[in-house]
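Sequence in, structure out. Go.
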Amino acid sequence: MKPKRHLKAQTLLEFALIFPPLMFLLVGFFDLGRAVFYYSSLSNAVREAARTGTVKMYGDYTDEADFENQIKDQVLAYGFGLGSLTAEEVSVVVDEIEGDTNYFVEYIEVTGKYCYEPVTPGIIAIINTTCWNGIRGIELTAVSVMRMEPGTN
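Output:
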């Protein structure tokens, strides 16, 4: 039996064909994990800030802007890993509930937005999205709505 010399570089050729898609998938999974982490961190920060807003006495603040700034600071403090998150990307709404409100008089809604920029080459070209601030990325938004404690109006 003669040795097959024409298959000498078969393994190298198969590796060269499989390596780029394999690396794209691995880095893509890494990016997906980062996106989930950032969304989880943003969601946790917004939820904790809304909870802080429900516990703090809204009526004790003479200035509504001071109360909102403290809630925004809470989002920034709890936003682990969200270094580029600013107070302008966090909105706080304190409002009355429509209808019969004998017991709960107000609610607080905290919304946070974060522009996630993937590191996987070509993902933005494939998805083709732009955030609200003009950066090409994926917009992550988390909202938490909680009712205020009774008597905090």
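Check: The CA atoms of residues 99 and 105 lie 10 Å apart. The beta strands are 90-96, 106-116, 138-147.
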